[in-house]
Amino acid sequence: MWREWNLRVAVLISLFFQVLLIFIAPSRKNTKNRIVTLLVWGAYLLADWIAVLSVGLICSGQGNDCDEYCVKDDLAAFWAPFLLLHLGGPDTITAFSLEDNELWLRHLLGLFIQLAAVVYAFWQSVPNQFQIPTIFMFFAGTIKYAERTRALYLACFGNLKHSMLPTYALLIKEVKLMLDNIPFGIANGKELETWDEESLTPNPLTDIDVVKNGYMFFQIIKRLIVFLTFTFPERHKSRKIFLEMTCKDAFRVMEMELNFMYDALYTKMVVVQRKIGYAFRFICSVLIVVSFALFASHHKHQLQPLDIVVTYTLLIGAVGLDFVSLVKLIFSNYTIVSLNNSNAEEIVFAIKERLSFGERCQRSNFVSQHSLISDCIINEQFKWFERVVDFFGLKDFFDEIQYKRNSPLTDDLKEFIFMEIKNKALQAEDPEYSKEICSAKGNWVLSQYDCLHPSIVNSVKREVEYDHTLLIWHVATDICYHKNEYSDEEKNSQNREFCKILSDYMLYLIVMQPAMMSEVEGIAQIRIQHTYKKAKKVLKSHMNVKPPNIFENFKKFFQSRQSELMLERIVACQILGLECNVAECGCKSVLFEGCNLAKELNKLGSERRWEIMSRVWVELLSYAATHCGGLAHAQQLNKGGEFITFVWLLMAHFGLTERLPIGSCMVGTTH
């Protein structure tokens, strides 16, 4: 019975995965939900597997004797090209991760193998009563599969970097223009200050302006993904425009840049939005519709009724998926960018918003949070459960469920970060000075304040490793935040809340996104484990920790305990602030240094304390943003993205990068 049904079931399952992917794949760019990611990952892998299996079933069944319930060879050969369409995949996903783009050669080989298999199946069925529609569908499937392979090739790291490398002639031309049009002081690293006022971005930006500016800046920031840097004109243009923008508009433009970046790295848009892409898409659509019409007009009295239903399902699915892809392509941001008619732009944008298919991105509205002290409390209560999930290799997955929480990212916090970085940018017209600012990890901020205790200043010295500084300030922030003698005014302090959100966010990145933070994390994982042990030791001796009850804790694991955990966390922080000493913590431990830092910070006036701490946290965030490679930021786009990526883009647009713009060395040596 399975032999009679396997092919029919396989081709329908293959179609189901295509429908699933075209609608759910875009959702992964604006959610960090692990269930959504798991669903997309499973559908992405199974879609290719079931399509290849189906082609194999067709080839193995051709020419074999079978009973009346088997699929006829003519019809099976007609089904085979549909699987090429499925292997081409929807426009909404070509790669699940960046690493998939590096496998474009394997996909190219797969293209040739599957084409050969489909041709073989067709050859075995000759003479075939569905010969013409089969040939038309074959060419349509070939186009779709080739589009996917081409998209993977264009998004691979080597090709991306090669396509953006400036030619020697271009560099010479740029330097010549700079020397001809700027005062001679440019030779000492000064930047061009002339600017066409008409080219400044209007303020505030309309939705159309956001799309067009997002695309313009995407063409520039692509360089950062492959470890290149801006040219002088690009840095100048980007810096000027962003200095004129409001915080709200800047984040909207950066959101759009990330949309374009996601499309270029994970979808077919970079292939199909070109003129030749539109031409092939039109040809493909015509071929599919003509195949449908030819099959519908053909005599089918020799076919099983069930097979006719399956064939029409495949045809309707092909037409429907192609129609959805075509509509999404026509009413896309790329179309808006290519139009020069304001009325047409408004119409396309309005329709695009209505047909967004859940693709509206809100990457910058939430940040993940993780607290070292909360981790200590929960870890002690669920130690038994951790051993079980660790045995099955699921520890990281359940750690996110247990320890991670989301906090809304308010407009006030965005504005605060934006203004902090903007104020630095205004002082960093010289690229060399901007490099110095980027290397600061709290010391630049503290240098602006007098009479600070040496332990505060020493915690951010250049010699101290970044992860060490971050952990010290995280412990200190938790203790200061949960201090029990705050006035109502201080409890409502914005800077106090900013510190807590940024502190927990940075620890989340270090603990749960180590791959992204690999450039700055040092031996953070070792330090964190050591600090956990020290904190647990102190807390156990001063808190009433009951022996764990396995059934009670299993029940608690699946219940919301936010209020209870918050109370325990406050008590824990107050204990650490009062009881942590050299004997228990060790004079060289992060925990002791954090507690000592908290004591010195608490001696400052309330307003001054939280102002200093919030500015230090922005500088620590900025340091991590610029020192994480562009590739690390790009790898997060398919998982909902990270807020630190916005900070990375913002600093780049303000000209705050460690690498000097292209041409600076050449110009700097001209005298």
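Next protein, fold it too.
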Amino acid sequence: MNEKILVVEDERQISDAIAYALRREGYRVEVVDHGGAAIPKMLEFRPDAVILDVMLPGMDGYDILKKFPDRGSMGVIMLTAKEDIVHKVLGLELGADDYMTKPFDMRELLARLKSLLRRMQAAAEKPEPEEIDLGGVRLHVGRRSVVAGDIPLELTPKEYDLLALLAVNPGRVYTREQLLDSVWGMDYIGGTRTVDIHVQRVRKKLGAEFSDLIQTVHGVGYKAAGGRSDQQHKNKI
């Protein structure tokens, strides 16, 4: 096992326990205990996944996600002592792949990490076209980049994955459950509202000209318009 995991956690007892458990499983592990050191370490270490605490000195976990949106295929599991749904939704909106509340069972954290890495590996191995063009919105698969007209967009990993899944099969209707399973994984414990929130965010980033590229199929889910001729009616959540 050669996967690299970065642990960003300021509580020494917790970070030591996580690092010990990860190394026992064969992962290569680096640990930082200050929010301000997280992004430089991500750029240097290039981990496959990050276990990221929310409450950190210097810069909290949410700000780290905001300031480093172009993480490519780097997975993120957030840790927090806050149990309310608002904080969980915020982390997921900013691109986290999963969320665990302290105190947590180490076996569950390891299981979730393995599941996340399996999904990432499966996505990386799936053959895809090099570039997808949907009526002026272009997705470059290799770079995981999106350009709307002439404007490059900054999408979180989950926002990109959602848009790319719809774009590969324009016109195909996906239920919210199918999108949740495909993008977040079948073992993801959050609800389908996560899909709606990410669709809203992608539409906003696409801008007014392309905001209805993702169309709502009421009572079912979403589809990508096949082109501008298929984008006459704006369907909102």
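About the second fold: The chain is about 40% helix and 20% strand.
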